[in-house]
């Protein structure tokens, strides 16, 4: 447990005892998912959806009533919509074109000439059958497919409609939409598996975001509605969702929000109604093979949260760890950043053939990973996915960042939060957990490595980055480039920021950022401004260098040499105009009086320049530090300790980003390079695990 967490928990307990606070904080929502007080968000877009799933045809039919409010100061006559499932309609969509160029998608490799490989009934699509102003004009004749990000006229993931009359500033319009969809074979967070598991994400016609000044740097009202890219996620406005789902009676269902009504129908179907205020998306799942577990999170000073776990029955043994990981996330993140406000959280662990839908986040609804034989006491994959996906309920859920344009604001900050929580909960990588139980006893001794998150982060910095962190998701060179910059590189960069400003200051930066920007749409500059304000520093150089730049940070201890000097020899002025002859031969003084002259050379091997602290440790355990601005290519530092020798030199600072940490230390008579082979092995395995985790996240 980190010192910061301990302090926060103690403070929380002290305040509870002092004020005799209730067992849990007052709720912000009632049992129907409705806000008890004033709206928490602006509620720009409200949805009433009625959908029916027919598993025999893998078809979804739906109708929705959408009420949209014009927040801008200008009339709006054109509305922009997402139609995400058309990304899976054919291999000419922007999604599949980019997937081919970038090496695949999170769950499929594109190296095969046959990519994407689909049977005729495995493609997905979404087709708007009718769209009209409520009680007024039919808009379908005005529907136009748009491609704002490229020139792909065959992409149908964004469309516009033109209203007969503009929506005035502050005015509202209500639309009625009818659509039909083919559910794709599970891919990229959505679809159906062969075992009959359904994950419905981005499944309905959904309005884009009209950004208004000064939101996200807008100088005039502008629609932000990107196509579905292979390396991107989503962006939407807050509102209210009231959704009715009709499925076969035999199916168990989980969804965003709170289940408020259940009705059995004469045709052997069931209609379930879910409601949630102040969210910006809605997802759901259905399967006949779910086992359902229920629990409640309660902790002094935090709101009570009901927990529902839907886990494939083959992975039922994962249930307790899924629940414990969720409770730990609610506890730590609620105290570090802000109490999670919603009354219910649904966790889904897909079956093995639906793993492409695992490791995904939606408001109050996440998908994780289940295992037939989870590792004990804390299975790395289960805890990592639960912690990571629930963490998204802050950076993507409460703070509705634009994941298309600035993926690091969600994925990267969340990866840093995952790292902090896994350290606090002592979630460790035990490689034998990745093998089936019959092999664990045989293979385990070969992998007697016990890594926490610090070891897993090693090796993330690269000699030179291909792309900056701050970049639109679809503009990265490859799938790996996107994952590296949006996830693990940002995680380590934020860890370096913590090294620079201190752990407690970093915690205040994140807490202030959440409180100031929740239920809004922040951008990178907003995070940077909070960091400058809270730290009391101008950190522009840090953000320019590490978020906008691609240079290399590599400092090294070049050499360490010492020689013993018994005393002075020669002619010395006494300071009074006379001369004193000093003749002292080596060895005439005791060792305790001898002066050791030690020279340390420190080099800057990369092009990034940062301040460096040089820490020397003497043979009696004492230490001394010297500061180097790090501007030149190298510097020489002289230490003259009396009666002791330097045993080790260590470079300190924001060295989490150093591309070659093996040269950051040197011991007398031995270079840090002796650890290269072990470091290389550690780096290789940690990167392999990071890649596996990123494919799930």
From TrEMBL:
InterPro entries in UniProt: Peptidase_M1_dom, Peptidase_M4/M1_CTD_sf
Region ranges (Disordered): 106-126
Residue ranges of domain Peptidase M1 membrane alanine aminopeptidase in the record: 329-546
Signal recorded as keyword: yes
Signal peptide (residue range): 1-18
Highest taxon above the source species: Bacteria
UniProt entry keywords in alphabetical sequence: Signal
Pfam families: Peptidase_M1
Plastid among keywords: no
Protein name, as recorded: M1 family metallopeptidase
The organism of origin for this protein: Archangium minus
């Amino acid at each position: 447990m980190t010192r910061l967490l301990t302090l926060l928990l103690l403070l929380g307990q002290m305040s509870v005892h002092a004020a005799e606070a209730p067992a849990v904080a007052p709720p912000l929502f009632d049992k129907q998912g409705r806000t008890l007080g004033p709206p928490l968000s602006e509620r720009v877009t409200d949805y009433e959806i009625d959908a029916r799933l027919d598993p025999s045809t893998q078809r979804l039919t739906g109708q929705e009533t959408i009420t949209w409010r014009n927040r801008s100061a200008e009339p709006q006559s054109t509305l922009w919509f997402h139609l995400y499932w058309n990304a899976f309609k054919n291999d000419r969509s922007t999604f599949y074109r980019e997937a081919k160029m970038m090496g695949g998608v999170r769950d499929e490799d594109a190296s095969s000439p046959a990519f994407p490989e689909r049977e005729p009934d495995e493609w997905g699509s979404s087709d708007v059958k009718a769209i009209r102003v409520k009680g007024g004009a039919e808009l379908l004749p005005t529907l136009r497919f748009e491609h704002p990000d490229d020139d792909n006229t065959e992409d149908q993931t964004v469309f516009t409609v033109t209203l007969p009359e503009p929506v005035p500033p502050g005015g509202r319009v209500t639309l009625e939409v009818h659509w039909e969809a083919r559910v794709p074979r599970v891919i990229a967070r959505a679809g159906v598996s062969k075992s009959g598991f359904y994950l419905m994400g981005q499944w309905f016609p959904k309005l884009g975001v009209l950004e208004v000044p000064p939101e996200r740097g807008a100088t005039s009202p502008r629609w932000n509605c990107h196509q579905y890219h292979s390396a991107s996620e989503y962006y939407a406005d807050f509102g209210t969702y009231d959704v009715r789902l009709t499925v076969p009676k035999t199916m168990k269902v989980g969804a965003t929000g709170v289940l408020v009504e259940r009705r059995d129908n004469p045709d052997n179907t069931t209609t379930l109604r879910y409601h949630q205020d102040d969210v910006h998306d809605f997802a759901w799942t259905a399967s006949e093979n779910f086992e359902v577990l229920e629990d409640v999170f309660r902790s002094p000073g935090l709101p009570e949260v009901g927990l529902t776990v839907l886990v494939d029955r083959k992975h039922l043994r994962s249930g307790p760890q899924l629940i414990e990981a969720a409770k730990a996330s609610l506890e730590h993140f609620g105290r570090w950043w802000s109490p999670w406000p919603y009354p219910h959280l649904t966790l889904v662990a897909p079956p093995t053939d639906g793993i492409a839908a695992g490791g995904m986040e939606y408001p109050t609804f996440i998908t994780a990973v289940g295992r037939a034989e989870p590792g004990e006491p804390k299975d790395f994959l289960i805890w990592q996915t639960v912690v990571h996906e629930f963490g998204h309920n802050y950076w993507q859920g409460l703070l509705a960042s634009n994941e298309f344009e600035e993926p690091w604001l969600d994925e990267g900050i969340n990866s840093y939060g995952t790292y902090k929580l896994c350290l606090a909960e002592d979630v460790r990588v035990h490689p034998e957990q990745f093998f089936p139980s019959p092999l664990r006893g045989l293979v385990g001794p070969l992998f007697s490595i016990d890594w926490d998150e610090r070891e897993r982060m090693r090796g993330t910095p690269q000699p030179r980055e291909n792309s900056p962190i701050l970049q639109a998701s679809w503009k990265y060179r490859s799938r790996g480039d996107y994952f590296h910059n949006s996830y693990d590189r940002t995680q380590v960069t934020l860890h370096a920021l913590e090294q620079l400003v201190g752990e407690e200051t970093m915690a205040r930066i994140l807490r202030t950022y959440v409180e100031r920007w929740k239920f809004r749409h922040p951008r990178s500059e907003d995070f940077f401004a909070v960091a400058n304000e809270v730290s009391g520093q101008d950190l522009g150089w840090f953000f320019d260098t590490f978020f906008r730049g691609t240079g290399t940070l590599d400092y090294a201890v070049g050499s360490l040499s010492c020689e013993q000097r018994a005393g002075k020899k020669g002619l010395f002025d006494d300071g009074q105009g006379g001369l004193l002859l000093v003749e002292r031969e080596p060895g005439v003084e005791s060792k305790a009086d001898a002066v050791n002259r030690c020279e340390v050379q420190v080099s800057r091997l990369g092009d990034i320049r940062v301040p460096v602290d040089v820490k020397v440790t003497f043979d009696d355990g004492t230490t001394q530090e010297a500061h180097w601005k790090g501007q030149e290519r190298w510097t020489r530092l002289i230490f003259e300790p009396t009666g002791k020798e330097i045993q080790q030199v260590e470079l300190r600072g924001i060295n989490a980003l150093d591309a070659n940490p093996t040269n950051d230390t040197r011991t007398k008579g031995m270079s840090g390079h002796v650890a290269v082979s072990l470091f290389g092995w550690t780096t290789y395995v940690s990167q392999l695990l990071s890649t596996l985790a990123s494919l799930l996240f």
